[in-house]
Amino acid sequence: MTNKALVVGATGIVGSALVRQLQDAGWEVHGLARNAGLLPRGVGAVAADLRDAPATAAALAGLAPTHVFITTWSRQANEAENIRVNAAMVRHLLDAVRPAGSVRHVALVTGLKHYLGPFEAYAQGALPQTPFREEQPRLAVDNFYYAQEDEVFAAAARDGFHWSVHRPHTVIGAAVGNAMNMGTTLAVYASLCKRSGRPFQFPGSSAQWNGLTDMTDAGVLARHLLWATQTPAAADQAFNVVNGDVFRWSWMWGRIADWFGLEPAPFAGEPRPLEAQMADDAGAWSALAAEHGLAETDIHRLVSPWHTDADLGRPLEVLTDMSKSRRMGFLDYQPSDDAFFALFAQLRAQRLIP
Fold first, then answer.
1. Which domain of life does the UniProt lineage start with (predicted)?
2. Nearest alpha carbon to residue 144 among 72, 216, 201
3. What is the 8-class DSSP label of residue 267?
4. What CA–CA distance (Å, rounded) separates 142 from 156?
5. CA distance 111 to 14
6. Residues known to be catalytic
7. Taking CA atoms, which of 3, 28, 140, 166 is between 20 and 30 Å from 63?
8. How many CA atoms lie within 13 A of 353 on its CB side?
9. d(CA 96, CA 79)
10. What is the mean pLDDT of each run of 10 residues along the chain (354 residues)?
11. Distances in Å between the alpha carbon of 332 and those of 235, 240, 303?
């Protein structure tokens, strides 16, 4: 049977990696994105505002995808609005593809806020024991991830398709204009430190500096998304997705510093948030970009210090269990330092960092 994918958020960190993976696998791929001009050759462009139900229905009329991959969300001022807007976006999307009766599988990408709580109560209160496992119950707090899941579950029950939910840890990958992009944020920060001679200071907590953690490469996540559509046992299941290694930031920080030719500053023993460290860096980045002929002069299109601070400032060790996927046969592995280095090399090749 022909596989026709609709990738929602196709130019983001996850979506762009998934588009490449699906194309390599021989799928017909259509991408829904705010800037369809960034889609690679061979991908059908779909422009729609998922907040607008009639416009979404019109944009998707006649497309008839067999598989829908939801890899995007819209950040709002508070969690109540996150829930209202993001649940509606999923609902409008699935209502729009319903008339064709073509959908066989819907995959939703969420993340570890499923276990750690929403931004307003992130890593606070009673949290499940680590490493996080898929069978652990939802937290007793409103969370837009839960609302997105519930929209998928309701549509699947109504329309008869299978689903999968994918919960990565912090994703390492490339995308310009992405709201949550630790890898590029650290690359920009390191480049500015090297140019100015500022100390390359770890911005996070002692729990993150000293404790074990893991991450998710965008390529691993893309392969996991494809695997779930092709593995009968994975139907109607939720999965954690990480690289398979664990590390301490006290080790990784030095590895990243070495890649950029920097000497890492000693850990201060308390957070030194990037949001404060980089608050006045727009001019310095513009000057550096002009000096090196970089493709993006607006630092705000590249960095998300608030998100990096949230992840690296957590007061607890965060580890993710992958046993469920391993038992079903997904055995991909990616050392996280290699994932960072591959990203940095890609950013340099694309003239996004010097």
1. Bacteria
2. 72
3. P
4. 22
5. 12
6. 113, 145
7. 166
8. 27
9. 25
10. 93 95 97 84 94 96 97 94 98 98 98 92 85 96 97 98 98 86 97 97 97 97 98 98 98 98 96 96 97 96 94 93 98 98 97 97
11. 19, 13, 28
